[in-house]
Specification:
Oligomer: single chain
Largest sheet: 7 strands, antiparallel
Strand content: 5-15%
Structural class: alpha+beta
Number of helices: 28
Low-confidence stretches: 435-446
Number of strands: 18
Mean pLDDT: 90
Distance between the termini: 29 Å
């Protein structure tokens, strides 16, 4: 796991100037690669490249980057892991008798590109990655991102320079960076708690879409960019879904469980390859428990596992994780974090995430990464099980209650929803003893008041096609909040495919957007912020492709999500240790905003300040803030979006 950055600049002719800029760009990425730094300059084309290395495979000098191919044709800076590099190495060896210089996956990737070309190589590799590749012979430059978007890459023209890098903080070190905030992107952050690709918080800077690459054509004796292509797809989720339908799984339940077991064993075996200490996050849930169980089954030594806990038992999963760790005989480390531990993390979030990002779980993700880094350099994670196997409560909830709700005339349920929403959450809390009967366990949001608020808002949704947007939206009309902001359209996979039901459509949209733009951003920045590599076995594209061949009944059955994954886990861990309501490590942001964070929030949400800064409309923000601190409503999600933008904006001026 590493970081890289670079640029094409025509106005920098002296190597001294270039090296000074590269040093600053590289230093900003030190956390992504504290072990080594390498630079490459190609002044004939105005090209400069810096790489920061976190040594995982072949920690010797022979794995240093940027790496030049034997022929001198290609130069590469690579971030990530190629999990099947040993298989590819043997395949390359069959074509040419090669004297390998290292045991690194980067050298294998480079030789594959020399042998087969970029497009064919991308079809063959299994891994997570982003990389920059200069083809000196053909005068072409490529930026490439892995299939699902585990590893980040930003790029764009700024004045006379084309700049790129693993994180925005590196791009900002280039003298041509213009630092112009894109108001339209703020609207996206207020709706989704993140800024989806291809957008970024800055004008002229894009995120490369998952499963794509761009090609920059160069021409002339001196620097000149002839053309920058639109992102070119080499792997598309819509194609995977279509192929899954054509080749749908036809075996028995037992056959499907066995095939998934074999596939995950292969994937996890490849992802456990490391020349440095390796472990896994263990929350005690189905996904992380499955990953750890298979890891331990393959290891002769206890796997190192990590979890964080809370003294608030309504949010605490550490006890469950401890029981599973004890059963599997892992080397388990847990850390109970106090409210103050979590609060102390908040000032670091703007720098950690580079652009406004407001998923609450960014805090516990950072804390568990910090814990793991004290013991290991690589940690496997159970992320993506929900998206692939139907684990989110909204999936099971929709399957249970939407058909019933939809039989009620819209005018009546809209009126009923408005009535429910008019009652403050605190008043609903007094009816908590009736919660389980009313919600049937399908809407677990951490409190009866929150559940009733969610029920009220769902009742006001007119049809199933609007359900997904409702579930993932915090501010329903962000254009009313962002001054001069126009919300861009995000691609909808339903425009490419017809879905047999709203649940599979929601799963596809989550995989396409929520997973790479929220979950994987959260994981990458939190872990790399402490120089920890994370690997996600469920995101092996072979697992994804298999999951989309399965009928929905193998994912959601009898009102319960992740059915097939639960059956697989039962082969390793007794169901009595894993069968419990989905919880997650949550945070009482709503209470903090009325308590220890109140002064901090009041300062950032001050009406005069909002007007002076000129980005946000103070009226709806102040209204929600006053309603929240009075207890009339719980606006924690909406307010956290605003607070994370405001704290990010404040950090830019420091």
């Amino acid at each position: 796991m590493c970081g890289f950055a670079g640029f094409f600049s025509s106005n920098l002719n002296k190597n001294q100037d270039r090296n000074s800029i590269l040093a600053q760009m590289g230093q900003s990425l030190f956390h992504r690669g504290p072990d080594q730094e390498g630079v490459f300059n190609y002044p004939q084309k105005g090209f400069s490249l810096v790489h920061r290395r976190l040594s995982i495979l072949d920690t010797s000098e022979s794995g240093r980057q940027p790496m030049l191919s034997d022929s001198g044709r290609y130069i590469i800076a690579f971030n990530g892991e190629i999990y099947n590099f040993q298989i590819l190495k043997k395949e390359v060896q069959q074509f040419n008798s090669i004297s390998w210089k290292s045991n690194s996956d980067t050298e294998v990737l480079l030789r594959c590109i020399e042998l087969w070309g970029l497009s064919k190589t991308l079809q063959k590799v299994v891994g997570m990655f982003s990389f920059a590749l200069l083809d000196i012979k053909e005068e072409e430059f490529f930026l490439v991102r892995d299939r699902v978007g585990e590893k980040p890459i930003y790029y764009g023209m700024q004045k006379d320079s084309f700049i790129f890098g693993s994180e925005l903080k590196a791009l900002k070190k280039h003298p041509d960076f213009q630092n112009t905030i894109d108001r339209n992107s703020i609207t996206l952050q207020l709706r989704y708690s993140c800024i989806p690709a291809p957008f970024s918080i800055y004008k002229g800077i894009k995120k490369l879409l998952p499963g794509t690459f761009i090609k920059v054509s160069l021409t002339g004796e001196s620097f000149q960019i002839k053309d920058v292509s639109n992102p070119i797809s080499y792997w598309r989720l819509s194609n995977v879904i279509e192929q899954g339908r054509k080749n749908s799984f036809v075996g028995s339940d037992a056959d499907a469980i066995s095939q998934l077991d074999n596939l995950l064993n292969t994937t996890i075996e490849q992802q456990m390859l490391s020349d440095v200490p390796l472990g896994a996050f263990l929350s005690g849930g189905i996904d992380s428990s499955s990953v750890v169980a298979i890891m331990q089954a393959q290891s002769i030594k206890p796997i190192k596992t990590f979890t964080i806990g809370s003294d608030d038992q309504s949010f605490n999963e550490a006890n469950h994780a401890k029981l599973i760790a004890k059963y599997l005989k892992t080397e388990h480390t847990e850390l109970y974090v106090s409210d103050q531990d979590a609060l102390n993390t908040i000032p670091y979030l703007p720098e950690l995430y580079d652009e406004p990002f407001s998923d609450f779980s960014q805090i516990p993700t950072f804390l568990v990464s910090q814990l793991a880094k004290k013991h290991v350099t690589v940690s496997l994670s159970g992320d993506a099980g929900d998206e692939l196997f139907g684990g989110y409560n909204r999936y099971t909830g929709v399957s249970q209650w939407w058909p019933k709700i939809n039989t009620i005339p819209y005018w009546f349920r809209s009126f009923l929803g408005s009535t429910i929403l008019s009652i403050p959450p605190q008043r609903w809390e007094s009816l908590d003893k009736f919660s389980s009967k009313v919600t049937a366990g399908s809407l677990e949001l951490g409190g009866f008041g929150n559940k009733m608020q969610k029920i009220g808002s769902v009742l006001k949704v007119k049809d199933a096609s609007k359900l997904y947007n409702h579930f993932i939206s915090n501010w329903s009309f962000p254009e009313d909040v962002v001054l001069k902001g126009i919300e861009p359209n995000i691609p909808n996979i339903a425009d490419e495919l017809d879905f047999e039901n709203v649940i599979t459509q929601m799963m596809a949209m989550d995989t396409l957007h929520y997973l790479p733009d929220d979950i994987l951003v959260k994981l990458d920045r939190a872990a790399m912020g402490v120089s920890l590599e994370t690997r996600v076995p469920f995101l092996d594209h072979r697992v994804i492709e298999f999951a989309w061949t399965l009928p929905l009944s193998m994912k959601i059955r009898s009102g319960q999500g992740k059915w097939i994954l639960r059956q697989l886990l039962n082969k390793y861990v007794p169901s009595s240790l894993t069968e419990r309501p989905k919880m997650g490590f949550s945070l009482p942001i709503d209470k903090w905003l009325r308590g220890p964070l109140k002064d901090w929030a009041e300062d950032l949400l001050d009406e005069k300040r909002l007007i002076r800064e000129g980005y946000l409309n103070a009226v709806p923000i102040r209204k929600k803030w006053l309603e929240h601190i009075s207890g009339k409503h719980n606006w924690q999600h909406q307010l956290w979006d605003i607070l994370m933008f405001q704290s990010w904006l404040q950090e830019q001026s420091l």
